[in-house]
Structures are given as structure tokens and as C-alpha cells.
Design a protein that fits this description.
By secondary structure, the chain is of the alpha+beta class. The chain has a single domain, classed as Ganglioside GM2 activator (Ganglioside M2 Activator Protein, Chain: A). It has 2 helices and 9 strands; from the N terminus they run H-E-E-E-E-E-E-H-E-E-E. Strands 1, 3, 5, 6, 8 and 9 form a 6-stranded mixed beta sheet that branches. A hairpin with a 4-residue loop joins strand 8 and strand 9.
Length: 155
């Protein structure tokens, strides 16, 4: 017995929809220098919630692959709004979580930025991780949206 044409169309539509779904939920990450040989590779960035809602808690988790152990270092965060630099801060990665970090897969603990004070719109975040000897271990950036709570039904 052959499947009906309607069933085949439904299956095809569902498979087509599945092929596009991951693109809507993945934060695209770009290296600062595509030719650089960084000791830390970036697997991805998880932003929750996405889009970011102004005035509500937001977590960003960095999924990384560490090439060699890290015993000290800092993470520098720069935020740009339509190309204008609006925020910069640095975090001691050994205070946020315990050092040393061994080589292999690693998720840098969720961190928060003061997004409650920013206006809604499109932002770009650049993250640079530097070891204790000021060697750049990685540098990457990604875009995200900041929205007003009432537009998405949040209170």
C-alpha cells in the first residue's frame, strides 16, 4: 500500500521545516580574525531568553574547546550598538569559576551584562579571552536583539 499524496506532502513539508528550524535558534559566532590560531575554539553561544528582554535576567553561556590548560586569565566584553561602542568590562575567569581549566570541552559559566540600561535594538558583543600572560586565547563576536518586555507579553 502506497502512502497517500497528502501524507507525502505533509512529511515533505515537515522535513523542510525541520531543515530551517535550527537556523532560527542558533547564535551565529564570528571570529575576530579568521586566520588566527587561537588556543580556545568556540563551539557556540547560548543566549536565554532570545531575543533578550530589557529588564529581565539574561544568561549567556559560552561553549568552548580549550587547547591547553588555563591557570589564569580574563574575559573582556565589548558591546556595540549600531557600530557605536557603548559598554566594556572585564571578568577574571578564575573568580567566575575555578581555575585551572584543563583541555577539552568547556562551558564558561553563564554571565550577565547590564542590559536593563540599554535601549532596544540590534547589538554586537565581542568577547576576548586573555591568559595570565596577556596572550589572546580567543576573540569572537555575535549579534543579538534587545526588546522591550511589553512587546513580547513579559511583565
Amino acid at each position: 500500500m502506497e502512502p497517500s499524496p497528502l501524507l507525502m506532502k505533509l512529511i515533505f513539508s515537515f522535513l523542510l521545516w525541520l531543515s530551517f528550524v535550527p537556523h532560527f535558534f542558533v547564535t551565529r559566532v564570528h571570529l575576530c580574525d579568521e586566520t588566527a590560531k587561537y588556543d580556545i575554539m568556540v563551539k557556540g553561544v547560548e543566549i536565554s531568553p532570545s531575543p533578550i528582554v530589557r529588564g529581565h535576567p539574561t544568561n549567556m553561556t559560552l561553549n568552548l574547546i580549550i587547547g591547553k590548560p588555563i591557570i589564569a586569565g580574563k574575559m573582556v566584553v565589548d558591546i556595540l550598538y549600531f557600530g557605536w561602542h557603548v559598554y566594556s568590562d572585564s571578568y577574571d575567569i578564575c573568580v567566575e569559576t575555578s581555575c585551572p581549566y584543563t583541555s577539552g570541552d568547556f562551558a564558561l559559566a553563564p554571565f550577565q551584562t547590564p542590559l536593563a540600561f540599554f535601549v532596544p535594538g540590534s547589538y554586537h558583543m565581542q568577547i576576548t579571552i586573555i591568559d595570565g600572560h596577556d596572550n589572546k586565547l580567543t576573540c569572537f563576536g555575535f549579534d543579538y536583539e534587545l526588546v522591550i518586555a511589553s512587546l513580547f507579553g513579559h511583565s
